[in-house]
């Protein structure tokens, strides 16, 4: 199938009470493993790349890899820009073939975040590409994304933000953080329920790596429709390759230890799909 947008898959998730996992991809091996796992589970999937991952290669290379893999898949696959930090990067991603864009102005004051986000929504609207915004800070450190503290999303500000920007989905701050949790997060899951009542668009949970499965499932039950997963994949991929090379230190074939990394990613993805409840949902409307 050709790459699809996130509009239909997130709308179906909101309607039917599950979430679509969005997996951060660092290379071709991750892309192939993620799609293979989702095909096995008959689940829709969102592949995504951050600005630092894009600098490692380019939007063109990641889009080409994702499009080629999606073309052979029997499930819907979207390609999403995660934490886009400029209109120029969003434009580059659109031109390369990305089918979903996040623009993150959460570090700005509300007025500036609205203006910054609205500009990207207007850009993407021309091509019919959905935009995810963020309101409230997701703390932690991951790639270029860094915030000392998590900030909770204000429901009244969220209503205004969505109305004035026209975003298709909203990443919210409920106490989660990017990267590895140094201390147990102070979550406010009830905030998700409040925001779902006030907003008519899908809600997104960042910082899901490291959370207990039951916590993620509670968030989904309250209204989360997209769950971002990055750190779990990076740790699993690296551990698998390190273990392979420790077992066979003379191996110099990247395909061999790359396959070990792919196997580890596939196992993690299957687990996350089950937590999100989207198995068998590839073609749900």
Q: Overview of this structure, please?
A:
By secondary structure, the protein is α/β, with parallel strands linked by helices. It has one domain (7-232, 266-276): Aldolase class I (TIM Barrel, Alpha-Beta Barrel), CATH 3.20.20.70. The protein is built from 11 helices and 11 strands. The chain has an 8-stranded parallel β-barrel, surrounded by 10 helices. Strands 7-6-9 form a 3-stranded mixed sheet, with no helix packed on it. The longest helix has 23 residues, at 254-276.
Parts with pLDDT < 50 across at least 5 consecutive residues: none
> What's the story with the biggest beta sheet?
8 strands, parallel, barrel
What is the oligomer described by this structure?
Answer: single chain
Return the CATH class.
Answer: Alpha Beta
Mean pLDDT: 93
Q: What is the architecture at the second tier of CATH?
A: Alpha-Beta Barrel
Radius of gyration: 18 Å
Number of helices: 11
Task: Kindly state the number of beta strands.
Answer: 11
Separation of termini?
17 Å
